[in-house]
Amino acid sequence: MYRQYAEKLLKSGHVYRCFCSNEELEKMKEIAKLKELPPVYTGKWSNATDEEVEEELEKGTPYTFRFRVPKEGRLQINDLIRGEVSWSLDTLGDFVIMRSNGQPVYNFCVTVDDATMAISHVIRAEEHLPNTLRQALIYKALGFQMPYFAHVSLILAPDRSKLSKRHGATSVGQVVNFYSLLYREMGYLPQAMVNYLALLGWGDGTENEFFSLEKLVEKFSIERVNKSGAVFDSTKLRWMNGQHLRSFSSEQLTKLIGQHWKSTGILAESEGMFVEEAVELLKDGIDLITDSDKALSNLLSYPLYATLASPEGKPVLQDGLPKVASSLLATYDSGELLGALEEGNVGWKSWVKSFGKSMNRKGKSLFMPLRVLLTGKLHGPEMGSTVLLLHRAGTSNVVADQAGFIALDDRFKMLRDTKWESFNNDQTVLESVATVP
């Protein structure tokens, strides 16, 4: 098919046979370079007589088909994104459309392909603008209807350089492949990736940045695509992924994260009350599916000694923590605390109120030492829900052995064995921390 259209251009005079050898072409480039001119073809065979051409054909000299570019004037197209774009024809030079081995070149191929498939819009990277000049000339010469062209800006790296292999991808196709191989493993959602990529150089004219695929289809218009390059911002992508995660229903999110926890070996089961409560408690701190691993592991851990040994833990330690620990152990040994936990949130609130009254503490003075003693940490999700979840984890056997979970029973054993006076000696503290399994 390409040969057929090349012969048509040959008959119409838009194309001619060029018998220049590679050596001759290289010499033309060297001369142009010395004269500080663009390396365009000088047109040696553009005006050859029929006799000269027949002579070379009889000798079997290899030849290419070159497109005859007008030497004067300008060519103009109306780009849907960039508006009017024009080129001076004297900067181009006659270009090859068929190689000497009979193979068509890219610009000739895509023009014939798009025209014969009745392509209406050609949307591609701005790097293709120089190709558009050659393709437009071929469209006109063959009498094809020219499609609408739209040349979009490049996706840039954070340093505003062109996104390249060192940044992870070099094309939309590679972004898709890169996503399927890496971003999915990193915990990104397909919905978030589509949303983010759509906003790289486009917007609907409002402040809205959150779009479902259906909304993108409804709102998109080529006229709102920006001319300037867009920076691929991993932080923004992560934020957007979190927005999509939190738009899921509780059932969807629980199923997604529960299956992930089971697949990574943190949990033995992917569903149930523990999973539902854990997802509900931790979801606000999860932007990626993989964030849920760290969030749950952190909740199940009990770094008490490391917390007490830290500079941030000293004020809590000095605020009568050993005395609070002693009273906490007493209420645990009596079964009062566990009984309250069995009653759920109502039981926990009632116990906390009673415990605070017995210690003459309230607010931060009560809750900070309780958080440290029960969770081993200074910060975390809502404490009542956390402690109730830890209690459920210890009674449901849903947490896998390799998760590093410290059950409430074991936490109270550690509290019972803690030598509080040793925390005044940094070296002793370090040795204590090192022995915690």
What's the topology here?
Blueprint: H1 2-12, E1 15-18, H2 22-34, H3 50-59, E2 64-67, E3 74-79, E4 83-88, E5 95-98, H4 106-116, E6 121-125, H5 129-142, E7 148-152, E8 155-156, H6 172-183, H7 190-198, H8 213-219, E9 230-231, H9 234-247, H10 250-263, H11 273-282, H12 291-300, H13 304-309, H14 314-318, H15 321-333, H16 336-342, H17 345-359, H18 364-375, H19 383-396, H20 408-417, H21 426-435
Parallel strand pairs: 6-7, 8-9
Antiparallel strand pairs: 1-2, 2-5, 3-4
Descriptors:
Glutamate--tRNA ligase; Glu-tRNA-ligase_bac/mito; single chain; protein biosynthesis; mainly alpha; 437 residues; ligase; glutamate-tRNA ligase activity
| Oligomer class | single chain
What's the number of helices?
21
**Alpha-carbon distance between the termini?**
74 Å
* Structure classification: mainly alpha
Which strand-content bin applies to the residues?
5-15%
Shape: rod-shaped
Mean pLDDT: 87
Task: Give a count of the beta strands, DSSP E runs of length 2 or more.
Answer: 9
Rg from alpha-carbon coordinates: 36 Å
Main sheet summary: 3 strands, antiparallel
Model description:
This protein has 437 residues and is mainly alpha-helical. The protein has 21 helices and nine strands. The strands form four sheets. A three-stranded antiparallel beta sheet has the order 1-2-5. Strands 3-4 form a two-stranded antiparallel sheet. The chain has a two-stranded parallel sheet with strand order 6-7. α7 crosses α9 (234-247), α11 (273-282) packs antiparallel against α19 (383-396) and α16 runs antiparallel to α17 (345-359). The chain starts with a helix and ends with a helix. The model is unreliable at 426-437 (pLDDT under 50). Residues 347-392 form the Aminoacyl-tRNA synthetase class I anticodon-binding domain. It holds the Pfam family Anticodon_2. One of its GO terms (biological process) is glutamyl-tRNA aminoacylation.
